[in-house]
What we know:
Layout: H1 3-25, E1 31-34, E2 40-43, H2 45-50, H3 69-85, E3 89-95, E4 102-113, E5 116-126, H4 128-150, E6 167-168, E7 174-175, H5 177-184, H6 195-202, H7 206-218
Antiparallel strand pairs: 1-2, 1-5, 3-4, 4-5, 6-7
Amino acid sequence: MNKKELMNELEKLRNSEKLYKSLIDESTDPIFSFYRDGTYRYVNNAFALGVGKKADEIIHRKIWDVFEKDEADKRFAIVKKVFADGKIQEIEVRVPLPSGDTYYLTTVKPIFNDREVETVICISKNITNRKLAEIELKKEHDKLSQALKEIKTLSGLLPICSSCKKIRDDKGYWNQIESYISQNSEANFSHGICPECSDKIYGDKDWYIKMKGKKKDAE
């Protein structure tokens, strides 16, 4: 290959590199890569936009310069693991922004050079809508669980006195039936008296006999 042909091939490589870099830069999915020490080797525009910075403010800076320490430690632990064992990992991350939290599912993939991991590339998918729906669903589930806990129900066999009708609770104490049911259900009581009990209690009273008579006449 002569010098002219070599120059032509180099030009083709440069153009190809520009094309692929342009495609990655303009991807709507955040794409970024790391050196072993946690320094950003490359970030595309979507990643920079996602953290509220410019790409050139991130490249060649460490992850701890971009995120709070706890969050950076959590993320870099996965990157460090991929460098160590050379296996693909996934991590769900939250990016806090003034406009609200954004959630991503990030795939962390090793790039090898002579069987050694030379760099780690990360590709993130925005899962904010799904995550917010999951959070809302969990809130509703927690509300329902709490409501179910607050609902008191009676079930099973209730030991009840055949004479006074008191009910024995789990601790062995006998309780008035009204008290027991009120404590173990959502029922409330209002008192009245049935006709049979009225006759037993007031059956020999003149006023009661007269009242009963008037009722019969009215019928």
